[in-house]
Amino acid sequence: MNDPARIGQRLVVRRGPAGNSSDHSLPFYHPNIHYVHILQLCPRVPFPTTDGGAIAMYDVAAGLVRAGHRVTMLALNTPKHYQPATALDHLGPNFRLVTVDIDTRLSPWKALRNLLSSELPYNVERFVSEAAKAKLAELLAAEPYDVVQMEGTFVAWYAGYWAEAGRPRGKHLPPVVLRAHNVEYTIWEMLAQRAGNPLKKWYLQQLARRLKAFEHHALHQFDAVAAITEADQQRLRQLSCPEPVVFIPAGVELERFQSDAAIVPRPRSLFMIGSLDWLPNQEGLDWFLREVWPQATARYPGLELHLAGKQMPARFRELQLPGVTVHGFVESAAAFMQQHDIMLVPLLSGGGMRIKIIEGMAQGKCILSTTLGAEGIHVKDGFDIVVRDTPAAWLDVLGRYYAGELASGLIGQEAARTIRRLYDNRRVVESFVDLYSVVRQRRAETV
Q: Which of 47, 94, 200, 214 has the fewest CB atoms within 10 Å of its CB?
């Protein structure tokens, strides 16, 4: 597994007096920082913070504001995640939310038309809006920004504005940074490899091919790219992404995950929590329920499995299996995690970083994950996480837990220490501020 001592080696990082992640009473302030105005372009309004993508976008914006910077967020307001323009007013006067309504709903007819008449991947095309592009141009014309940050592949299309605008005399075009939440094409390649239906496999392969071509082209539109894991950093370089390509992980607002000593987790209880509208999460849960749970509940009849997550497909909502309780959407992920004992992450496909893992670790949970699920998180098997990849190995761990032979409490304690040491959101914000300084300096040198 990853060596915790290596984290930050590829980050553009400055450590100052406020870098002490153990003291949350101090404001996040550094006297040597130049305070900047960031325009953050998001594929959705990142609120409420009920899934990893929303958490990653929200925490960076909130952390920047807390650190004294200004953030204007231009967010595509989608039917699935629709929010009022006042949704983020609680972030204060240094934050402004600007939304553009866009219909990103899946349509079989639009998908077919896209397949027949476009090289743009359908899951990117859904986020293309001329109205949003016009609003981006309007914001850039109205006031100067120090940096534009685009959150993920699905809004990378908007970097075409820079290519079209060029650098007209007298026009301020700030440097633009891509925050790569995933290398998207790799997710769809993995899904295609395991697809049983030949037609579905073919379609997923086409989607992966188009995504790879799009990401390769789009990466050249940015002044810098921030990968959320070191593995993704290497994948981006393999796509010929221009430097700098830096590694900046997702962080955790530790105050959000202060454990309540009055809550005692249910004994012998396993839990899974995540967005079940994401295909890799569905695939992983299907695998666990098919390959692991039937034998686990037969051998260890006292085990309980608790499932939580939004947008659950009917096959999960309507589960009638021994020992399984389906909670559906829960208002507080932190409270749900505290009520149960061992966190399961049976991920077989995917990229980026599993935010729910670092949140579970922040809660002091012992986590049983696949190698892919833990990818990008600096953990050590048997020390602050448990990593297994086969059904037999998962059953062995569950048997040890059932018999009281797994040091789950100690592993959870080490997990919480790892998060406090390496994934405090304030350190993540520091790294972004340093990256902004680098790209602004480079831009100044070329003007």
A: 200
Number of H-type helices and E-type strands within the chain? 16, 13
CA 357 to chain CA centroid, nearest Å: 11
**Segment holding 151, helix H or strand E:** strand 147-151
> Tell me, what's the pLDDT at 406?
96
Q: Could you tell me if 28 and 258 are in contact, meaning their C-beta atoms sit under 8 angstroms apart?
A: no
Q: CA 106: distance to chain centroid?
A: 22
**86 HSE (CA, 13 A, CB side):** 0
First to last CA, the chain: 44
The b-or-e profile of 164-183 (16+ CB within 10 A means b, else e) is eeeeeeeeebbbbbbbbbbb
**Cα(3)–Cα(380) distance, integer angstroms:** 7
Amino acid at 396: D
pTM above 0.85, yes or no: no
Alpha carbons 219 and 214: distance in angstroms, whole number: 8
- Calpha distance 318→308 (Å, rounded): 13
The answer to whether 92 touches 99, Cβ cutoff 8 Å, is: no
Tell me 66's DSSP state.
Answer: H
**C-beta separation of 363 from 334 below 8 A:** yes
How confident is the chain (447 residues) per 10-residue block, as mean pLDDT? 40 35 38 81 94 91 96 96 96 97 93 90 94 94 94 93 60 88 90 89 93 94 94 93 94 81 90 90 95 96 94 92 94 91 92 86 95 92 97 98 96 95 92 95 82
Please name the residues in contact with 120: beta carbons below 8 A apart, sequence gap of 6 or more: 114, 128, 157, 210, 214
Which residues are bridge partners to 226 per DSSP?
179, 246
On whether the CB atoms of residues 228 and 181 are closer than 8 A, the answer is: yes
Q: Please report the pLDDT score of residue 310 as a whole number.
A: 86
- The Cα-based distances of 177 to 39, 167, 316, 382 in angstroms read 10, 17, 38, 37
Q: Which residues contact 141 (CB under 8 A, 6 or more apart)?
A: none
Q: Which amino acid type is present at position 324? A: V
